[in-house]
Amino acid sequence: MLTKRNVIPDATRSTATDLRVQRLLTSEPVLISNCRILTLIDHPSREINQQLRAALQSSQQPVLKFDEGDLRLTPVDFASLLSRRLTNALTGVSRAAVSRLVIVYSPRWSGECRLPADAQRIRIAHRQIRDLLRIVYDQETADQVQIIYGGFVFEEELADVLCDSNVDGVLINK
Q1: What GO biological process term is on the record, naming one (predicted)?
Q2: Which positions ≥6 away from 77 have C-beta within 8 Å?
């Protein structure tokens, strides 16, 4: 079920798409419907900010897809890139609006050569995303934002990834 690369569309799309998310090992996947995917790494932050604001005013579910690119960044480098991209994308977005947001961390490297520490790297990245939201907004708002892992994951790693309180689920293929 989860041995194939999980796929989230790469392009910023104005059309809606649905995402299937595994939240717990023992539960059925949950469907997040009517999503508008906004990819942070591929588009200028100002453009993403405008599209995010438009999605928040519409009936679509805004989803920010974050990818660190082709490199496996160290936690310090990831935090620096994340801070620049995410804070620019969220400029002027209210607490109430950001609480509707879904963030998908979907690193390109996850489909390549896997390393033993990748499950830990995934958990650290999710914690860094949540921490940045806490700094920019507050703890309550940060806790309301869904942060989902959208990269490749082996079934034997799934429990390790999902047990982290900062990981709200893992995307799965249909």
Answers
A1: glycolytic process
A2: none
Residue type, 131: D
Lowest mean pLDDT among 27-36, 42-51, 87-96: 42-51
User: Going by C-beta distance under 8 Å and a sequence separation of 6 or more, which residues neighbour residue 89?
Assistant: 38, 40, 45, 48, 49, 52, 64
Q: Does the pLDDT at position 47 exceed 80?
A: yes
Q: What is the pTM of this model?
A: 0.86
Tokens encoding 146? 């869904």
Backbone angles phi, psi at 139, to 5 degrees: -60, -45
- Helix H or strand E encompassing 31: strand 30-39
Map out the domains of the chain with their CATH numbers: 17-172 (3.20.20.70)
66 pLDDT higher than 60: yes
